[in-house]
Amino acid sequence: MPAVLARPWPAFLLRKVFEFVLALLALVVLTFIMVHLVPGDPARVIAGMDASAEQVEATRGRLGLDRPVLVQFWDYFVGVLTLDLGNSWRRPTTEVADVIVARLPFTASIALIGIAITVLVSLALGLLVAGLTRGNRNQWLDSGFGWITASALALPVYVIGAILIVVFAVNWGLLPAGGANQLTSYILPTTAIAIGPICSMSRMVRREAAVVLEQDYMRTARGWRISTARQYSKHAVPNLLSSTLTLSGLILAAMIGGAIIVETVFSWPGLGRTVVESIIERDFGLTRGIILTIGALAITANVIIDILLALVDPRTLRAGKALT
Amino acid sequence: MTQASKRGRRLGAALCIGALALAGCTTEDGSIEADGTTEGNGDGPHTDTIRGAWITDPVGFLPMTTTATDDYRAARLLYDTVLRRDIDGELIGGIADDYQLEESGLTLTIGEGHTCADGTEITPTVVADSLTYFADETESAVQRDGVFGPGEATITADDDASTVVIELSEPHSDLPAGLAIPQSGIVCPAGLEDPESTAAGQVEAAFSGPYVLSEANDGVSYVFELREGYDSWPDYSEELEGVPAQYLEFYVGIDDTVANQLLTDELDVAPVTDQELDRFEDEEGYDQTTVTTGEFYILFNHGEQSPFQDEEMRRALAQIVDRETLAEIVDPNGELIATLGDENMQCANTDFSLLEDYDAEAASEALDGVQVNVIGTNAIGQNGAGAIYVQEQLLAAGAEVELQNLDVGTWVTDIYEEPEWWDVTVFATVNNIGTISWGLGTVIGVPHTEGGRNTSVSNNPAATEALDAALAAGSEEEMCEYYQIAQEEALAAVDFIPISMDTRTFVIRDGFTIYGPGGNEDLTSLRILD
Amino acid sequence: MTTVAVADVQTGSHSPARERRLNPMLAIGLGLAMALVLVAIISPMVLGETARELTGDMRQGASSEHWLGTDEFGRDLFARALVATRLTLILTTAATAIAVVLGVVTGILVWMMPERIRNFVLTANAVAVAFPGLVLALVVAAILGPGAFSATIAVGIAGIPAFTRLAANMAAPIMVREYVGTAKQLGVPRPIILARHVLPNLGEPLLILAANSYAVMLTELSGLSFIGLGVQNPEYDFGRLLADALPNVYTQPVHVLGPSIMIVLTGVAAMFIGDGLAARSNPRLRRAVKGRRTGTLLQANESAAAKSAAENDDALLVRNLCVTSAAGQQLVKGVSLRVKKGEIVGLVGESGSGKSLTAMSAAGLVPEGVTASADELRAAGHDMLRHPKSGDLARDVALVYQDPMSSFNPALKLNSQLTEVSRVHLGATRRQARLELAEKFAQLNISAPERRGEQHPYELSGGMLQRAMISSALVTEAKLIVADEPTTALDVTVQAEVLRQFVGAAERLGAGVLFISHDLGVVEALCDRVVVMRHGEVIEELTCDQLTAEEVQHPYTQKLLDAAKFTDVSEETEANNA
Amino acid sequence: MPEATIEAEELSVVFGAGASQHQALKDVSLQIWKGKSVGLVGESGSGKSTLAKVLIGAVPITSGQVTVGGQTYGAGTGRRRRTPKQLQLIPQDPYSSLNPRRTAGQALAEALDPLWSRVSRHRKTIAEWLDRVELPQGSIDKYPYEFSGGQRQRIAIARALCIRPEAVIADEITSALDLSVQVEVLKLLAELREELDLTMLFISHDLSVVRHVSDNVAVLRSGELVEHGEVEQVFTAPQAEYTRQLLDSVPGGPGFAIRT
Question: In sequence order, which residues have a C-beta less than 8 Å from that of residue A135 and are 6 or more positions away?
């Protein structure tokens, strides 16, 4: 082993790159297999119900679906390697890459805004509740927090979205009900996508914070007689970051998946809605490209989070291994 | 069929979101989202833009190769047809001033002053070239046979006489109706030179219709701009109120939010789902226009594995279906039908006494203990309520029922390619051509397994013969006579159970209007009222 | 939310005989769960027919006849919401069971594999966890087709990677516990170790997790119904009802209400059970405190205070200090202490003698969960009973704690921690504070003083850290130093050097020192005076000379002294040798 | 020449590779004669715990060899398992050395019967041993949390000794305890050693502790053995400068001076 790889950072990054490549390969195979498992003949659906048997066969030929599966896979695989995702099956003149480039920003924006809101709100809320309920004080807050977060967590995101639309768009007329044309259009979808994660993350922060606040180093900070706000923000928060980051990795993955539903509810022109449409339309060229993108994004986000974790707590460089 | 592929086939349902339906494949209630455009733009009549909603991105902009609802919508805006439907449904002139139906085809008289978007004049040669391209495009022009019939079409132009003559090797009385559908839109020479770019919407000179495509934001919106100096509007028997919009903006999305966006003034006009129409009932400032898209009916599998190869079983099922209830479930706005077409359609049967009466008791004897596989799609009736109704009625009659409510794609595939897997379904045709033969052809005639359109694979020689004769008829009277025989024979054998018209209702904000010429959707009839 | 339980494992050491009293959360959760189970059992029998019956009253709103209206078939939605409970509970339980059981089995089995394979499996699993669960569920459902069975399997399988990871992570600290090592040493086969030692210790946290993920599974199942993959007619669960009603949310919002409420109640029940179990497994969170606030310092006797209000030059003066636990137990019973300027006073006693509580209370840092009161309490000249300025206290009273590793914040560099007082209270700039600290580091013989401040605590040895802690007292020129067993966690070899630096620093500052220890040997070498505590009381006070001369009165002190010199052991050993 | 129960010859252990390589033990040779006790002293990081782990087979040998109970283990075989009868280890932390969910009786039963851990079958032996380490009556069915730190350490001792091993390693078993409790535990251990004629390696960072339970003393520093000799000799006339420093750092000892 070259000496440079024995150093923590290069070794760590190398391992991450390896994981990343492995995951991408798995993803390429998975997307291909998935598409083949979806029932419904793409040629029949794309050609249309009124199409004759010959026309369906012609479409099959155009899509290359009449070739052996392995040949199809090889073409797809080589295409992905050369960053050529090919054309949409349903719309032969449209490149998959163009569609992704056009719609990715919409999904990325709500997911990133959503995760940012989630982390900030959860840290503040969780710490606050943990601080106020220390030593089992303020039991009403304890149970109130429990009720509200548990209820919001149990509600599916599409119900939350519908409630938001009814209240803020339809009844009060404050915000747009859907689409993505104005800045205000971002408010409802990001809120809808963040409410659940905020509840689960603030519950976690609150529990972790209850432990952190009892640690010796918090007593040390107290001994310096600094304000409670500073004790929390400077001395407690850094110790909550590891678990918060770890959880936000999971949440981000869930959010990108959850975008499928949120984008549907809010007619948001992002990848999530498009992937659903493409599956319904059996436009698997598009489906594969998008799922590949979504998966790659989720994996990238997790790699980034692992790197952030290592920055926050350099001990994970050595010890972390796969136990992130 | 293997167990594995059976399982595999079912996935699609998994993947279908709610009421979202396959574009253009059946009968979804239109669609979509949109979003508020620039502020103040849509407030009342002081605007030159109409904001509407589409289901999804159009497949392409070459009219003859289009396959889905939004494609037809775009094609209608971008390309004019030789014939048009009048407000009451009669065929009237478009690019052609007139037509003459003959036994071997028809002769069109092309009007003067029609131009392409680049100013090229639309001559008989231009028309003939475009129609020839359509007739030759057998691989991807899905409606080719619907328009020209199964035989060969020879199209000749006579620029001096201003005529185009279409000769068919096999007579096809649906031809005039077929020439009025958006797929028959005339593509100007520049478009035929480069069909691929035209399909991508990049050849403006290809357009012969009132609008050109000025902006296409994939997945977000499509904007159409009125051609300067366009003056080829159809000569409707009544004048359309208002003025055409300078811009038409269509937002792409899903129907969940359309009603909301109409109510929050983010949209001016859009099709709204049946269950959401109630929201506009007590709302001031909105109007509705209903168009029809096709017919709902119960489709039997007449194949060997199905209990419904037996006429008595089909009759029994007809006896337990209360068509009024089922119509209410699948489309509360659709009128009951006694054939596969609307009662105003040429040669439509309107005699409801030809249908079976409700008689659950009689049916129970036949159906008790019978194993029935009901297949359905969640696009027909809310969450697939249509198939659920049939299932519940069968259960009540003592049958053993297995139901699969699938997404449209799987459902369509199964119906055509897995005949051993289903016995009955609630079906919907999109009656693209707008004729009786189009709907009837899905339940009688040559089975689809033998290259025909008969989805039910029924065997009814008498009805089939009459249908063929109607299509070959030289006069309307003769045609209707044969059609009546075909309809009576099919209904007598309970080859299918007609239910109701499949409709789509547009909600329009005050200050705007849309017409439905002949009950069809036609976005060129969108107008801004003053 | 799933990662949370990792913390529970670490904090919640299990004690089987712990009291079984239900806490409020657990009680509410179990109550709700029982009610739901009852509904699940009874409603299909009573309302099953009503729920299935097709009537002519289609798409109705709420009425006295149909409390939640009817669906497009005229079926009563209230009855359906109740009847759906049975299937929902069965499916959710099954899905949770699949995820938990298979996830835990995999997570534990990886510990039977060689390290290389384990790392590979865990890496692959990390990738699976990162993949959106909904998509994973779609793939599984693709293979199995729509329906209750496949939805359950799909959601269950999609949940496995998360549980695998959690179980593997939770098992990791247990695998390095000494009792596991001992079991290996005793020749216990690996599978039995996993079953006997690892699994039972995962039981409680896993139960908590399972309860919490029950709610997640519930929403995921309903999510599958939303995208058309869930339970198919004629069966129905909450998710199916909700998805069916959702298109009507604007016209008949009441249709959405029934299944929404049921889903929320089920989710809340599951989460409360989880929270309740977690709270119960953590004794610190379990004790309910009623009445007064804890962690406070009270004036015990107004008149006594007034009597000695006169200024006083001592570094520390404590009169009649009592510390009471929240449960009312007297932990410190009227201790009085005095530390003069420049004097080092040792406070000696065994674990539980109340010496740490005394010291912390004297420094004005009464721990959470107890209340302290005193007739008089002055530290570095400040009347602690009258809320002195925190800046003054921070400057004048310095503290050194027992375990340097845990007293330092692991997430922050030394500079960031040790310059808090000068930056917050003394107005130093970041740069000034660092330079000053580095200077004091050098004074305390800390090697490479400029570099140390930029290091994290784990990069330094215990002795080094303890010296760094002492240096902060030097920076502020503290007048009183309270040191709570500052060397017990250190090697003896390091201990002497740290103590030397400590004493040197105190002498340079002329500060009074209250030095807590259980080792009379150390105290003897260090202190001017010794106070011996036992069971919360002062039992003896000696000068250093008396101690050296072994002029002790109390037998307990004698015992401590003997221990420090290992007298009885050595005597016996010598006797044996002879 | 008496027989050596435990022997290390030229033992070296290297951890890691490349830049992070770390030599934990360097050519350590050490014999523990049958029935004798050796105290192994050194500060944190000196390699004393590594030596213990090598002896029980938890850490691989880089070079050299060890002999335990007549078997010799080398670079390739260092991690082969020793039989429980040959060598037992009493671990350091009284809190993590007992499974919180298993009673004192079950802990001992595991030693007597690793596979099934049946308390009923060995109840008598277990009770005798718990009594032997001076635990109160009825301890057999109690859980670890019901014992104090010193009592837990007694359970750990009983568990290690109840199978009557030839040799035992005690790794810092008193460092987490209060001084007076330390004394009691050490006393017990000394008695048991005498009674069972145990061969013992006693590891500690505190020379004064070692003195009272050992026949010989070995001093480790940075992985190297700096001194090895009889207890009294090392204490009265230490050869290495480092040993002298260690002696001076014992609180209460003659060289222990803090205030100058």
Answer: C287, C289, C294, C295, C326, C368, C369
Q: What is the pLDDT of residues D115-170, one digit of tens each?
A: 888 899 999 999 999 999 999 988 999 998 889 888 999 999 999 999 999 899 99
Number of structural domains (chain A) is: 2
Residues of chain B with pLDDT > 90, as a percent, come to 63
B302: exposed, middle or buried (Cβ count in 10 Å: 0-12, 13-18, 19+): buried
Distance CA D12, CA D14 (A): 7
Nearest CA in chain D to C573: D212
Beta strands in C50-129 (DSSP E): none
Between C210 and B179, the more confident residue is: B179
Q: What is the CA radius of gyration of chain A?
A: 24
Residue C165 vs residues A205, A235, C103, C330: alpha-carbon distances, Å = 19, 28, 8, 45
- Report the Cα–Cα distance between both ends of chain D, in Å, rounded: 48
Lowest mean pLDDT among A133-137, B344-348, C447-451, C529-533: A133-137
Q: Which CATH architecture has domain B294-503?
A: Roll (3.10)
Name chain A contacts of B412, Cβ cutoff 8 Å.
40, 44-45, 49
Touching chains, D (3+ CB pairs < 8 A)? A, C
C224: closest chain B residue by CA: B14
Cβ of B15 within 8 Å of Cβ of C138? The answer is: yes
pTM summary value:
0.81
Does A3 contact D20 at a Cβ distance shorter than 8 Å? no
- The answer to whether position A93 is within a domain reads no
Residues 403-432 of C with CB under 8 A from A: 403, 406-412, 416-417, 420-421, 424-425
CB contact under 8 A, D186 and C566: yes
Q: How far is the C-alpha of A268 from the C-alpha of A261, rounded, in Å?
A: 10
Q: What is the mean pLDDT of residues C499-510?
A: 89
Residue A3 to residue D18, Cβ atoms within 8 A = yes
Q: Would an 8 Å CB–CB cutoff place D17 in contact with chain A? A: yes
For residue B363, give the 3-state DSSP assignment.
helix
- Nearest CA of chain D to the CA of C349: how many Å? 9
Residue of C60, C71, C143, C227 to mutate, interface with B, max B Cβ within 10 Å: C227
Cα D68 from Cα D72, distance rounded (Å) = 6
* CB-based contact, B220 to chain A, within 8 Å: yes
Question: Which residue of chain C has the CA closest to A319?
Answer: C172
d(CA A291, CA A274): 10
Tokens 């045709």 sit on residue: B429
Residue C284 with chain A: CB contacts under 8 Å: 214
Per-residue pLDDT tens over the stretch B450-468: 888 899 999 999 999 999 9
| Residues D132 and D230 occupy one common structural domain | no
Mean pLDDT, residues D8-31 taken together: 85
Q: Do the Cβ atoms of B260 and C250 come within 8 Å?
A: yes
> Is residue A90 a part of any domain in this protein?
no
Kindly report, residue by residue over C29-73, the tens digit of the pLDDT.
Answer: 999 999 999 999 999 999 988 888 878 787 788 888 888 888 888
Lowest-confidence segment of A287-301, C156-170, C293-307, D188-202 by average pLDDT = C293-307
β partners of residue B54:
B252
Q: Which chain A residue's Cα is nearest to D21?
A: A6
Classify C304-577 by CATH class.
alpha beta
- Partner-chain contact C185 D56, CB within 8 Å: yes
CATH number belonging to domain B51-285+510-528:
3.40.190.10
Residue A135 to residue C172, Cβ atoms within 8 A? no
Rounded Cα distance, B464 and C109, in Å: 68
Domain, as residue range, for A162: 104-323
C-alpha–C-alpha distance, residues C255 and C253, integer Å:
5
